[in-house]
Amino acid sequence: YYLLHNFSVMLDEEEIGEGLVLRDITKEEEIDLLKNNLISLTSHEFKTPITTIKGGVETLLRSEVEWDPEFKQEILEGVHEDIERIEHLVNDWLDISKIDSGTMYVERNTIRADHIIELSMELIPEQLTEDAILTFDNRLREGFTFFADKMRVQQVLINLITNALRYNDSSPKTIVITLDREEGYTTISVADNGIGISDDQLEKIFNRFYQVDVTATRRTGGTGLGLAICTGIMEAHEGKIKVQSNPGNGSVFTLYFPEKEGEE
Ligand code: ADP
């Protein structure tokens, strides 16, 4: 359903309740709405990095000027950062299309948790991890394995760990990664001591484009698609993602991967 508007229900000039006008939309219409949303969002988000890349490259192309090597380096680093930003947007967009068309396929193998966490950590920008303390479950050293798609799990973990560091004003930032097995699932939890999420926002953060604080997110360059993609990836694993939070004190995101049939 798509919410058109809400209204008050009156009886003898007294308000006795609230009503909602919902329109039953088809799956196709829903996808269209989301696509329009995605297109307007991304075209806006693309504009800034493209403008900076263009400006940077045009500056360097001015052959009549002998640029200082340090200045040149600075411009190239900026251009590189903006290209990465565009790459990120395109990848997010492709993943959302896969989720919508039911083609977010996963290739599951038995993978080692320590390897996957190490690989994920390597891909997180250094400026995010420099004032952070990461603690890992002891079981990581014992070669703990689970059944999942290596690249997709890595993507989900990078997202959760990046969020845990971004939405965090504590010093030092602490992240604890825990592994467990419960009722047919292998679980991986990422706990942070960040700003936390209030009860009424807990469900919404998994929705596309939803961001609790747009100004803070603008600063961190998020798109609000990360957790929606994580949900799609976990569903493709026939698993789930859950969150618990204590506003002001931090959050815990837990991934549930179904165990391989016939395995303990
Ligand atoms: P993005 O980070 O690009 O905004 P996400 O879908 O990853 O998009 O997250 C949606 C929103 O959920 C974030 O904008 C933020 O407000 C909130 N959020 C996500 N992870 C955390 C966290 N660990 N602590 C506090 N808030 C979080």
UniProtKB/TrEMBL annotation:
Localization, UniProt: Cell membrane
Top-rank taxon: Bacteria
Histidine kinase domain span: 41-261
Identification of the protein by name: histidine kinase
Species for this entry: Neobacillus piezotolerans
